[in-house]
Amino acid sequence: MKAVLLTGHGGLEKLVYTDVPTPRPDSGEVVIRVGACGLNNTDINTRTAWYSKTVDQAIGDGGADGFETIDDTEATWGSGAIHFPVIQGADVVGRIVAVGPDTDPGRIGERVIIDPWLLGHGDWQNTANSGYFGSECDGGFAEYTKVRAANALPVTSDLTDAELATFPCAYTTAENLVNRTTPRPGETVVITGASGGVGSAAIQLCRLRGCRVIAVASLTKADLLRDLGAEIVIDRNTDDLESAIRTAAQGPVDIALDVVGAPMFMALINALRQGGRYSTSGCIAGPMAKFDLRQLVYKDLQLTGATICPPGTMHRVVGMIETGALKPLLAETFGLKDLARAQEIFLQKQHVGNIVVTP
């Protein structure tokens, strides 16, 4: 089959379109003919080893060419090493074409969407017991892929494969990010990176919970974000973000959901009310932030990270997809052989929603 192999840490030249053996299912596994596979920041982070603590730059600074100084022993989301070559791609939609032993053959032909979190039994927050599809195993940037049967979730939808492939990573991440702050109806939430996959998903998920949403993004995308449910859109380049947030909210906000990181971190913290909640699932604009601890202490704030999604998260997302509660945002589609170009466009951050490749 055709696939794109990540052959090592570095720039886009490490992505090689080539022939590899078609996967065969082991016990409890299924083989899926890939209809579409979405891109996400994890693909870039892993390729460039941005997760390495030796890197203190924004993702975009080395996204195309790689970073000069990395530690390849801590180059994955779980601070471990990655084995090359590997097929990346977490956001897979397709049909089951083969099953392994101990797997129901009646599933052949089933349309499925992959839950990318490969959680083990027991402590699912132990990184040694939790893998990610396309990182700790081969993923979906290929014509076929395999996964354990329990992670191939049936999906009934009129959406295209490319539209469905916008959901897995972005919406499970956003659902976890939102849940970490336990939003209540009527609360005001500010969301950074609101036009990206996770940010646009978080807008929809917060609105479903009855929250008022303030989005931080480029004003060129304001109309689309309002259509998703944002009440107000603040220019991401504003000089005084804290004041802009407080003005939009007519006071401090209850919750800040952040995927941008360093440049906006303290403005978000300062804009929170007493007892406010901040949660982050990424820091694409920079991981190193200054922090006034007095804000945390004397405002009784709650700060959380959001990475490993609890069991059942993708099942809930599929349910919302099937009822039409969530809207797919398909920015652009590329052929599999053009994955490197797709990542170039992805890194420019001019799109709204998700970019997808199709075999």
TrEMBL record:
It comes from the Bacteria. Coiled coil: none annotated. InterPro entries: ADH-like_C, ADH-like_N, ER, GroES-like_sf, NAD(P)-bd_dom_sf, Zinc-ADH_QOR/CCCR. Gene3D superfamilies: Medium-chain alcohol dehydrogenases, catalytic domain, NAD(P)-binding Rossmann-like Domain. Residues 10-357 form the Enoyl reductase (ER) domain. Keywords: NADP. SUPFAM superfamilies: GroES-like (SSF50129), NAD(P)-binding Rossmann-fold domains (SSF51735). This is Alcohol dehydrogenase family protein.
